[in-house]
Design a protein that fits this description.
Largest sheet: 10 strands, parallel
Oligomer: single chain
CATH class of the largest domain: Alpha Beta
GO molecular function: GTP binding; mannose-1-phosphate guanylyltransferase (GTP) activity
Helix content: 10-25%
EC number: 2.7.7.13
Radius of gyration: 21 Å
CATH superfamily of the largest domain: Spore Coat Polysaccharide Biosynthesis Protein SpsA, Chain A
Protein name: mannose-1-phosphate guanylyltransferase
CATH topology of the largest domain: Spore Coat Polysaccharide Biosynthesis Protein SpsA, Chain A
Strand content: 25-35%
Enzyme class: transferase
InterPro entries: GMPPB_C (IPR056729), GMPPB_N (IPR045233), Mannose-1P_guanyltransferase (IPR050486), NTP_transferase_dom (IPR005835), Nucleotide-diphossugar_trans (IPR029044)
Shape: elongated
Number of domains: 2
Distance between the termini: 45 Å
Number of strands: 29
Length: about 350
């Protein structure tokens, strides 16, 4: 089986982290976002993953070469010279995805984190006999998304409504698809969207079916949703394999700590925290709802909440970092500094407090 991951663009909403690496390589729960998906695909027998990419393909491929060998899965690229929307990449990778076997292939959006019930999706796809299956998820605010209107009993998709003003349903496209190779014949090599063009045509022929995603779902392409996604992911990990989570008197709720990280005396960590490889958390530190990436040092009695601390940064003694502060790579917050929602570009030293949310160039 094969799969395509839509890697796409510049990751502007996750800057300053994406100034250091392409968005799919930004760490989420201590591993690059895209690796969560590649591992899930490998687990159900996918042998080749094609990345649809228009930005820094060499960085992505060099990075993923290591994982090709580790996971035993082939990772290739189809590079767009111009952005092709969400359907164009399928046409671009047609030769790679249609190998004559007639087997369906997966397409995933790289920003989406979930429990990836791909095995169930294959069974669902085979059972309805249509041309394409899409995963949908229930949301509280459907007006922000494209809503999929479907027949509840069979899952047959009737139509798509983009950002509806009136309530038509609460199921939205979850960015996980399983398509027969025949779908490739419908798509032209030009900037085009499968949500607006490809799928409505297949739905009109009653060949498109939607499966409601069990478990959690989040598009983690922006900081607030990234932090929410981490909470949902750790919650799901607690149910599936709690042994991977940290425990002890200094831990509150769900916390993921890399085995190479060092944590000092008298800290209180959690809930919903991920601490990456090689991190040093000194004595008396308080962490909650945050991600601390590889090689970060947090000095004594610092307090961090609802924030993302980028690779190899340091947070000084008695500093307070909160309210969606995002530190890019190699940022140094001096002792006793307060950051209220500061977004700090890489390689900066912060010597004075950031009192209201702002970007620090």
């Amino acid at each position: 089986m094969k799969a395509q991951i839509l890697v796409g663009g510049f990751g502007t909403r996750l800057r300053p982290l994406t100034l250091s690496v392409p968005k799919p390589l930004v760490d989420f729960a201590n591993k690059p976002m895209i690796l969560h998906q590649i591992e899930a695909l490998k687990a159900i027998g996918v042998t080749e993953v094609v990345l649809a990419i228009n930005y820094q393909p060499e960085v992505m491929l060099n990075f993923l070469k290591d994982f090709e060998a580790k996971l035993g899965i082939r990772i290739t690229c189809s590079q767009e010279t111009e952005p092709l929307g969400t359907a164009g990449p399928l046409a671009l990778a047609r030769d790679k995805l249609a190998d004559g076997s007639g087997e369906p292939f997966f397409v995933l959006n790289s920003d989406v984190i979930s429990e990836y019930p791909l095995k169930e999706m294959i069974e669902f796809h085979k059972s309805h006999g249509g041309e394409a299956s899409i995963m949908v998820t229930k949301v509280d605010e459907p007006s922000k998304y494209g809503v999929v209107v479907l027949e509840e009993a069979t899952g047959q998709v009737e139509r798509f409504v983009e950002k509806p003003k009136l309530f038509v349903g609460n199921k939205i496209n979850a960015g996980i698809y399983l398509l027969n190779p025949s779908v490739l014949g419908r798509i032209k090599l030009r900037p085009t969207s499968k949500e607006k063009e490809g799928f409505p045509k297949i739905a009109a022929e009653k060949m498109l079916y939607a499966m409601v995603l069990p478990g959690f779902w989040m598009d983690i392409g922006q900081p607030r949703d990234y932090i929410t996604g981490l909470r949902l992911y750790l919650d799901s990990l607690r149910k599936k394999d709690a042994s991977k989570l940290a425990s002890g008197t200094h831990i509150v709720g769900n916390v993921l700590v890399h085995e190479s990280a060092k944590i000092g005396e008298g800290c209180l960590i959690g809930p919903d925290v991920a601490i990456g490889p090689g991190c040093v958390v000194e004595a008396g530190v308080r962490l909650s709802r945050c991600t601390v990436m590889r090689g970060v040092r947090i000095k004594k009695h610092a307090c961090i909440s609802s924030s993302i601390i980028g690779w190899h940064s340091t947070v000084g003694q008695w500093a307070r970092v909160e309210n969606m502060t995002i530190l890019g790579e190699d940022v140094h917050v001096c002792d006793e500094i307060y950051s209220n929602g500061g977004v700090v570009l890489p390689h900066k030293e912060i010597k004075s407090s950031i009192l209201k949310p702002e970007i620090v160039m």
